[in-house]
Structures are given as C-alpha cells and as structure tokens.
Amino acid sequence: MKFDHLHPADQICQIMKRIYDRKETTVSGGNLSIRDSEGHIWVSPSGGDKGNLQHDDVLEILPDGTVIGTKPASLETPIHQAILAARQDIKAVLHAHSPAAVALSIVHETPQTMLYPALANIAGKSALAVYGAPGSDTLAANVAKVFKEGCDVAILENHGLFIGSTRSMKHAFEVFDAIDFGIRTQLNTPVLCGHEPSLIREAQLKEYNERAQVPVMGTFAPDGVGNEEQLQREMMAMLCKRACQKEIFSATGGVISARVDGNSFLITPQGLDHAYADPDDMVLIQNGKCEEGKVPQFYAELFQKIYDKNPGIGGIVAANPPYAMCYAVSETDYDITLIPESYNILMSTKKFPFGSTFTKQDEIAEYLAVNRPVAIVENECYIIASPAVFKSFDRFEITEYSAKSVNMTIRGQKKIVNITEEQMKELSVRVKDRQKKLAEAERSRMESKIHKK
C-alpha cells in the first residue's frame, strides 16, 4: 500500500488508530496534522474516539485561516500551526501522551537517543519545551521555539511530546514509535540493572553507519515461487504484523528471516513498516545473490553466515524489544533461570560487543546453534535463531515477557527466587528426553513415508 498516496484525512485516521491501538495515547488524547502541497492544514478534531476517527471528522484549515469541518478543532491546533509556521520544511506533526513520553515529561528529561543505532538514526534532535497551559499562546510559542531551533522532537514539560516530520505522517509515526520504545528502555534500565544505560558515542555511530550498508551482491530473476518459499513468505508477513502488535518490533525496527532450502533464505527488506508487511515484500537470497528489484536488510550477510554454519537453523529474528534491551545497554546479564519456560526454551545467551554484527560475524555464526539460540549484541539488538522462524519469534516473546516480569517484581519491591541448580538439572533431563522422543517420532514418520512409497 502506498500510504503517502492516501488522502491526508485518511492518513490521519489510520495513524491515529495505530497510536491508540499501540496504547500510546488515550481515547481522547493526542492530535495529528498534515500540511498538503497547497498549504492546507488537515488536523484531527477535539476529543472523540481517537481509535475510530472517520474521514469526515478531520478538519481542513485553508491558508487564510478558514476552517472547514463538522467537528470542533482540537485545543492544541494552534500549536500545530505554530510549528508549521516556524518550520516550512515540516509536512506532518504528531502529538501524543504515551505513558513513556509522559514519564519523561514529568521529570523534565529528553530521550536518550544514543542507546542503539536503530533509534539514533531515526530519532533526530530533541529538547524540552517550557511548560504552558494547554491551548495557551504561551505553550504554542514555547513549542514552536524548540522546532525553530532545529529540533524535530519537543518534550513538553508535564504534558507529552510533539514530533515534526519533513517527510510524511507515516514517518512521524515511525519516529514516535521508535522513540517510545527507546524511552521505555531508558527508564527501565535503572530498575532492571541498577544503573543508567550505557550510550554509544557519535564516532561509534558514524563507523556503524558506514558499515551498515546493503551488502554488495549480484542479482537474479526468480523463476516462480515454490510452495515452501510461499509458505515462509506468508509466515514472515504474519510475524511482522504480530511483532508490532506484541511490541517486539517498533514500526521499522526489527528483522525476520526464514530458510527456504540449503541454498536460499528470505529476509525482510530495508525500511519496511512491519504493520503493512506483505508476503511479496520479502527478499529472496539465493546462492549469495539477491532477488532483483528489492533491497534486503543489511543483516543479510550475517544471516547468510549463520545459515551456512548451522544447517539446523531455519529462522532468525533480530530486534530491540524495550524491556529486554535494558540488558543490552548495561553490564547486567540476562537471567534465564526464572521459570521452566525461559530456562528450557532460551537455554543459553551470550553477549557480543557493539559492532559485532560487522566485526565478529564469524564468531556470532559459530556461537548460534539450536541449543544456543540467543546472541545479545551490546547497544544494538538481540539475535535469536531456531529450527523454524516461528520458534524464533516465540523465543523473542519469552525473552521480552520475562524481562517485563522481572521489572514488575523489582518495582513491587519483591525478592526474586530463581530456579535451583537441582531443578535446572531435572529440567535439562526432561528436555533431553523429550527431544529424544520427538526425534524418534520423526524418524518413524519418515520411515513410514518411505515404506508407503
């Protein structure tokens, strides 16, 4: 879907619903605006059901100030107008009161965008806007001042945030979603790990970005789509959407890959908005060459090495889930000895230094295996591998949910009681027995299949 080709009013309705469905604003909170090519401003109305806005609910403001619409204008419309007047390059403005943004606003802090590259590269510059009463000229002037000084994000003291995009409303949401993920990591790292998160330096980010280029590889024209490939394409598109819904992926943050056969695998494309993922979006890599007309994620080179090294791995997911990422931006180790599920399914984790996705690809590929599924790259991401891509997604959910559980326990001032050594030994025996039975069942199934032939 070409989102930017939609009517401005429809764009506003769709993005407002996404914000509400993501639990990033209340049913009556937040507002959006778009400046079209003719200088008309389209803005969401006051109040109403922000999860169910309709095309005709959206107001149009003409250059002469005339307002066209059936609903009352939002109280904060003058702030949108002030931002757009201060920055002629801005095309869309987003305002929301997500719990994470409000949490920053009530301590008068700005987002720590240098937590990891996926955040640093999209977040832009931010600053605090001095407090003003909602709807007041003072607040409009204070917010506009932040944007006039070159910022794209304003944290309003004791309020929420405003984001301006020079590209589109969809891009404004992608920035907001990434920042919201980052704020959760920023605020929860001291809770989970006992200290402030570590940040990457500008020089590190520059070097990372110089390396994070689409791998140079030849191209090929696919000769149709086989059944297994189509199945994996559909599975990946479904998991992209679900990863957004389950807050494992931000709008554009995250990578999914699935093996097709011994010589080929699929990977998500560069810049994909996961909520709109389609099976045809996925990029086929075959014999080291890329499906023509498509641009794969830059992780393709690393994933190729992981698949080559580990024939048992059939799916890989990389992402920055907000609670689990607390352990990636700190020295604290991720603890798998919480419940049988985390111990049995995650099995093993290992940290790699920042930049290892380029400098230590062979080491990551050597480490990851069916019984060593989780690699944590400091200040970058988690990489989880499994025999099937669905299993990798399952492991990501367990990783993030377990981190959330620890967060709740610590905030409740309770003491965590881990699984004992004896219990871990018992679990290991049970897992081995189950794996043996599954292997025997699979062998019997294959033998029966051969006999039938």
Automatic annotation (TrEMBL):
GO terms for cellular component: cytosol. The keyword Metal-binding applies. Residues 10-187, 234-407 form the Class II aldolase/adducin N-terminal domain. GO terms for biological process: pentose catabolic process. SMART domains: Aldolase_II (SM01007). Residues 417-444 form a coiled coil. It comes from the Bacteria. GO terms for molecular function: aldehyde-lyase activity; metal ion binding. InterPro entries: Aldolase_class_II_sugar_metab, Aldolase_II/adducin_N, Aldolase_II/adducin_N_sf. Keywords: Coiled coil, Lyase, Metal-binding. The keyword Ribonucleoprotein does not apply. This is L-fuculose-phosphate aldolase. It comes from Lactonifactor longoviformis DSM 17459.
